[in-house]
Structures are given as C-alpha cells and as structure tokens.
Amino acid sequence: MIVTSNLSKKYNDIQVLNIESLEIPKGQSFGLVGNNGAGKTTYFSLLLDLIQPTTGYIKNNEVLVNESEDWKPFTSAFIDETFLIGYLTAEEYFYFIGELRGQNKSDVDKLVAQFEDFFHGEILNQKKYLRDLSKGNQKKAGIVAALIGNPEVIILDEPFANLDPTTQIRLKGIIKDLAETKGVTVLISSHDLLHVTDVCERIVVLEKGKVVKDLRTSAATLKELEAHFAGTETV
Amino acid sequence: MIKQFLSLEWKQFKRASYFQKGLVIKIFLILGALYFGGIALFMGVGMFFIAKKAIPDVDPIITVNNFLIYWFLFELLIRYFMQQLPVMNVKPLMTIPIKRDTVIHYLLGKTTLSFFNFLSLFLFLPFSIVLLVKGYPVINVFCWFLSIIFVTLSINFLNFLVNKSNTVFYIAAPLLLGLIALEFYGIYAASEPIGFAFNTLYNLPYLAIIPVLLLVVLYQLNFKYIKKGFYLDDAVSKKIKEVEATDLSWFDRFGSIAPFLKNDIKLIWRNARPKQTMMMSFMFLFYGLIFYTQDMYREMPAILAFASMFVTGGFLMTFGQLVPSWDSEYYKMLMSQNIPYRQYLESKWYLMVVAVAISFILSTPYIFFGWDIFGMIAAGALFNIGLNSFITLFGGALNRMPVELNTKAKAFSNTNGFNPTQMLIALPKFLLPMGLFYIPYKIVNFETGILVLALSGVIGIVFKNFFLRKIENVYQDGKYKTIAAFSEKK
Fold first, then answer.
1. At the top level of CATH, which class does the domain A2-230 belong to?
2. Where are the domains of chain A?
3. b/e per residue, B357-381, with b = 16+ CB within 10 A?
4. Arithmetic mean of pLDDT, B158-164
5. Which segments constitute the ABC transporter domain (chain A) (predicted)?
6. Could you state, in order of their start, the residue ranges of all structural domains in chain B?
7. How far B186 CA lies from chain A's nearest CA (Å)?
8. pLDDT tens per residue across span B379-419
C-alpha cells in the first residue's frame, strides 16, 4: 500500500530523516517508535505532503504523494490539535470533514454513533467549541474525525498521549478492529511501548531519522524494545 | 520584584516576533508612530487657534471643554476595539511565590503605559503649553491638564470593565451616536452640561480631586475584579462560551462551495479577530464623508473615485487580504484533505461580494451628495466585485502571516500589511480605480469615467474563472511555504 524509497529530508544540511526503503502492505497495523527528534512526525508529514522530501518519494497506493493529490480521498490523518477547527463544535467539525469526504449528515451520524463509548459522553451535545475542550477530548474528536469517509489509510501521530486509561483501552480496540476486520492500513506513532506492541503487527524503530529495527510483533517484542531504549541491548 | 517584571517585559518586547521581522517593518513602525505622535502634537498646538477661529467670541478653553466629552467617548470606543487587555501574561506568574496583589498592581500599572493614554498626553500637553504661553493662570491650567490625564486613565480602566461586559458596550455606543445626532440636529446639546462641568473644573482647580477620586474608584473596582478572578479558570484562561448554534443549512443551496461558506460564516461570527475586522469595516462606509463634504476634493474627481471605491470596499479589503491566513490555525488539516482550492476561494469571494452589496445598500444615503457621487459609488462597488476582489485575494495568497483567530489585533502590532509585497499589491487597489475613472474623464466626460470604471468590474466578473485559476496557482506553488509559515509559533 505504502512504498517509501530513498526518502530523505534535510533542514539546513541537517538530516532529519533518511529511509532507504520501507514497504507497508495493505491492512497492516504499523507502529513507529523512537525518541524525540527521531523523525516520526517528519515521516508522517511527508506522507501527507505537508513538507517536501529532499530526495526520494513515497507512493501511497501507487500514487506519488508529492506529485499527485489523488491519495487524499482514501487517506486521512490526525497529527495534532492544529487539525481541528477550534471554533466549531465536535458535531459541526465531523459534518464539515464529512462534506469534504463526500459523506452526508446521516452517514456521519451513523459512523459517529459507533463511538459513543469512546467519547464517554464528553464530545457530543456538549455545546462547547473544540478549542474549549480538554486536550484529551480534542484528541478523541480528532481521531474519530479521521475515521470519517471510509479511508483506506489512517495516520495517527501519538494517539495515546493525553488520553485517559479507559479511552486508551477503547482506542486500542478501535485500531485493531480497523486493521483486522476492515482491511485498513493504520499507521501510528507512540512513546508508549506497551500500547504499540499491543496494537501493531509490525513495529519500526527510528533513530536519528534512520530505521534501526523492523520487527514483527511477537511475545518477545516488548522486551526487545525495552532493552533497546534502555540501552542495555546485547549485540 | 518590579525590576524583574520590567526585565521580563523588555525581553518580551525585544523578542516578539513582529520586532524581529526585519528592517523595513521596523522603519514603517517607527514612521507610523512618529506620524501619529506628530499629528497629535500638531493638533494639540493647533487646537487653541482652531477653536479660536471657529468660535471667535468664546474663550478657546471653553470651546475645548465643551467638546471634551466627545473626545473621551470616542477614545472609549477606539479602546474597546483596539486595546488589548494584558490578561494572558499572568499565567506563568501564578505559580511563582509572589504576592497576588503585587502582580495585579503591576498588571494594572502596565496598562497605564498603553499607546492610547499617550495619545491624550500628546494632544493636551501642547495645548496646555499654548495656554500657558497665552497667559492663562498657571494653577488652573496645570490642574485642568492633570484632570484630563486622570480622566484618560479612568477611561483606561473603565475600558477594562467594559470589555468584560457587552451590556456596557451596547449602552455606550448608541449613547454616543444618539448624543451626536441630538447635537447635530440641534435638539439637545448634551455637550453643554458636561462642558459646563469641565469648565467648572478649570475654574476651580481644587476640584481636580474629583477625577483623582474617579480614577481611584475605578482602579479599586478593577483590582477587586481581577483579584476575585485570579484563578486559571476565570480571568486568565479564556472564557468558555456557550455555543451559538445557528442552522445554516439554507446555504446548502450553494452546492459545492456550501461547506466552506458555512464554515466562513461561523469563522467570522465566533472569533474575536474576524469579528473585529467586520466591525472595523463598517467604518469604511463613512470614508466618503471626509471627501464628499469638502469642496476641495470636488475639484479632484480622481480622489473621489478612490473614496468611492473605499466606501463599499471595507470588508473586501480588510478580510480579503488575510485569505488564507484566516484558516492558518488548521491549514495543515485542510491541506491533507481533498480540498478543491477553487471552491475554497469561491466561498471567500462570494462573502466579499455579499459584503460589497450590503455596503452598497447601506451607502444609499450618499445620494444626498448628488447622483453623480452615488453613480461613482456604484461604479466603485462594481470595480470592487470584479477586480479588487481578485487583486485582494491574490495579495492574500502571498501574505503568509498566521492569524490568531480568537485574539483581537493589537494596535500597531499588526504588521500584516507592512511588507514590500503587500505594499506593491496595495498600489493597484488604489491606482486602478483612480486611473480607470480619470483617464476617460479627462478624454471624454464624467459619465464616461463612471461607465469605464463600472465596465472594468463587469469584465472582471466575466473573467472570474481565469483570475481564480491564477490565484489557485499561487496557492499550489506556495503550498509548502505557506504550511511552514502558518505552523510557526507566534
């Protein structure tokens, strides 16, 4: 589904990302981990064509991301709160995104209704603008908005941060369900190793912009990751 | 403690993004400050002589006193729109071991250094000096001057309270307009009793204690108000407003641009900055009054053409120059969605057209100045719709300044218009209507001038798609630059 080739990004001669080759097949739940500055958000921004690659390219379903815009209808993302329109209510925001993605009001209502649990009564019918919601609740709204319009690729940057434990567990269920039963390719990044190993079939570790580990998740993965980040790995 | 506050303040000033914007802007800012300061100084000196000339049999100080109330009400209004309350800055101070009272005193003290307070100073200090030179009694003039400054400071603090309640504002604004109307039509001169009060103040210097008391009372009120709300969830963090939900499904009939149109209306309605822009753009409606009332300009029809364009173009220009900056807060999201630029732009264009149409309807009283003037306004409106709208949108596309939607623009810190590209883009906005009118006017006659100006607008509408495509290209070419600029920290 997503093919990355020779991709690099430099800011003033400082290389922040350099991925020689990375292929993510359709329907995979893909996790990206790495310390601050490892290049996770840079990679996601390149995937969304928000910044220009210095070299190389990303192909999303055979579409060259930085040249055509045809990847947009089947790709959706929630990177941070700047993806929200602060002066709308959650419902208005969902309808707006729905309209952009060719969904009418009842389509959106139907989809959103499935996430009542996830919202925990704090998003819908609140008579509050998104800018006035707490960080966690903003995140919930943003994540669900990214599911509108049956996207085939969903990109979530740090989806677990700022969420309360109950919501974290529910979010894991949602992500698993998307990848396993609906065939959606889900890309997430996280600092929480436990969550990523729980949710993702495959985990890639970035370090200073380079892929240093590419693991199929198994029972041993968490231990391996912990050892890696603690710096006690035996080579 | 105060010393440390001041050093923080200095750093904030020095490191503010608008101060680091480059030499051109700095020069413009300094020139702007000099200009306004100079005008105030000049007016201050000239006031005495103007008053004397206008009403020769009355002592100028009495004339000035009679009109003071309008100055103060005007000041209050301007402050309401322009003056920023220093509320957000206290947040980091709350957890530091400093007495609350110190912080609040400092905060309130800081507001006395606002530009608006100096405006009064610049105006009345030279006036008082002229009075002294003319041999008016020193004690009276001195106490009167102090009273004025105290009243100005009182207004400063009154504004603080007014800003917290719309009720006070909606009382003050119609009151001012009503008083002016009553005075203008000679029904009731409210300036008389108030003027009398100021004159008494001048004649009995010891009464200067009254403004001092007024200031103390208002200061105390503010102090109590802030102290009561000195918690994160009250004054410091923004108030959480109940949603004003309106059914905008009526707009669905506009088809593919409907989602954007609905969003833009909410954008204007629910955010402080665009709301302010909308209010300010009403002021443009009165622009014609400056030009049409004076015979001097009657002889310069090119200037009149320019003024006529301004009458209906207020919203178009002030709102349009910040497209797409209005959407800067969530521009990344828009760019990752399947957004057709065309519909995005068209929505803004329709808003601007509607604004021109409304301004045009509101400008019908200008018929009073004659049909030729009104014809000019109509032609100006067509020019605005057909050409100016595209020029403005084009300029906006090159203007990559992030806008904070829910914060009012500060006076003189809004440097959006102050870069060379914007200056270049602004030129055709002014020169085109003048040229389009003036050249055929010189060659043929007045009516032809109006006709050509109007036709230029019609031609613009005909070529709408062409213009929109050109602007679209600017958007496409500058995509990464715009995203990067908008995500910069303010």
1. alpha beta
2. 2-230
3. eebbeebeebeebeeebbbbbbbbb
4. 76
5. 2-233
6. 2-236, 250-486
7. 46
8. 999 999 999 999 999 988 888 888 888 776 654 444 444 45
